[in-house]
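Schema walkthrough. Field components (list of strings):
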Amino acid sequence: MLIERRWKKWVFFYIPLTVFVIGTLFPFYWMFVTAVRPDSELYRSWRAVNNAPFWTLHPTLEHFQDLMAKTTFPVWLWNTFFIAIVSTIISLFCGLLAGYALARLKFPMAGTLGTSIFVTYLVPPTLLFIPLADIIRNFQLGNTPWALILTYPTFLVPFCTWLLMGYFKTIPKELEECARIDGATRFGAMVRIIFPIAVPGILSAGIFAFTLSWNEFIYALIFLSSPERKTVPVGVVSELIRGDIYFWGQLMAGALLGSIPVALVYSFFVEYYVTGLTGSVKG
Amino acid sequence: MAQVLMKDLNKKYDEVHAVKDVNLHIRDKEFVVLVGPSGCGKSTTLRMVAGLEEITAGEISIGDRVVNDLPPKDRDIAMVFQNYALYPHMTVYDNMAFGLKMRKFPKLEIQKRVQDAAEILGIQELLKRKPRQLSGGQRQRVAVGRAIVRHPQVFLFDEPLSNLDAKLRVQMRVELKRLHDRLETTAIYVTHDQVEAMTLGDRVVVMKDGWVQQVGEPLELYGHPANRFVAGFIGSPAMNFIEVGIKDGGALWADTAGFRVKIPSDRTDRLKSYVGQPVTIGIRPEDLHPATGGDAPDSTFDAVVEVVEPLGSEILLDVKVGANSMVARVDPTVRVKVHEPIRLALNAERLHFFDKKSEVAI
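Field assembly_structure (string):
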């Protein structure tokens, strides 16, 4: 019995888990190895003598130095950060109020409105960028950070609204009713009672919104043109691939540096973010 | 301190008419309990008083003010909820101080009031804890404390004891009653438990399907129920009902298969018009006892014991009388066995009669 159970545990748990972990982490490892590998190794034929594709014996930081010195990578980093933060704040603000209204207030068409907000989230950016490009041009926002700060909420607001609406629904109504009897207005009860309780939900919505805008590609590619305006995902791809020449070392160094802030944000808030998704306050 | 007046109060949701023409005058310092089965409109009525539900038609006034259009915060009321509704991110102290802070009381006054309330409820040592670190009974106390620090005009209780276990419920019930005697504040209390209603209320309002069935002091409801619903709802075990015909044979007789009882002469006036018609007769379990030589033969009948429930202080007998079942509450000294016949006598002075169709007391 015991032996059989151990055997099953390996087959159905440890082995699949190992495969999954390797499959998830290997691209990061590959990114790292490529970023620290000297050019002489990078562009060597696979059939060359002593080719070692999975590791390097001569790690170097030259790609990082090139990235910082020869491209405007630090500027891209700042652009991405600024755009992601501002659009996250805008979307969280709208999402909080809209999510609360949809979860709590009774008004005609509330259900329909909720669903239609969700439907707008399903419209793919690859379609939406066409009308948006026209709007951006009319407002003469092209090639400015505002082109992205104002378009990212088109998918961030529905997302935040839905996540927060679900979270608000798990908070017992009586808490608010009690606060209103205790002397708060509806808005006061929302700000003093509901929002503090919803902090895990708000944080996870914020983290998601930040990550989505940080990684966004299509709008950034279309609405920004000059190199010093670009964001990390677009900048790395458009400035480090020239024709058919790929600057693999710098590309991977850029990708690695670009993914660090997101990884940091997640690891700081991971606990909040899990309770934010599973919801519910036991009080 | 204030009276509460409800005039022709109605509440309609889209399709449901939840509260129908409720008229109630709750006097200053009175403890009134709304009781009824779930869905009877008692909670909705309370929530309209609180201002949490809009009033479809009618008028509510607290003190001298009509409060229909006042938001909850301006009605000067405090409410205790079934699930306690403690703010989970605040300490017990902050929970209790919240209402006072919102009303901009000076800090010292807040401290004093919270301390006083905590002392009354015996929760001084819990003030620094968060709600999740408290037991159910402790949470209940904090919820009550949060209500009493405000010194409101009216307390509203929405099934506050339902989430407690049976023993704690009895204990808290006594404490609430003591608290009301001490604070002398008008209170409206909603419950589905008729024992709670009878023990707590100065007056009890029985509701069903949105209608008020009867308003009265507990013993008045018990002794003189206005209709069959109230008669069956108040009292445990419930009143026995059997359908009988009224026969005129010199005196009036209540008569059905296996059951023939003479109706006392003081009741005949009102029952005369029912001769030849069926009516429902109601007998409280304690008005039945094993017949002895002293009982008049025209108020006794034969029954067969089906179940014996010895409770210690009394014995409940489930008996079969003809085609009807009844429960009798008898002395613990009575010795009977299942399936044995027994002759029961009833206290004819305390019979209840109800019109079969309208179910109104005759």
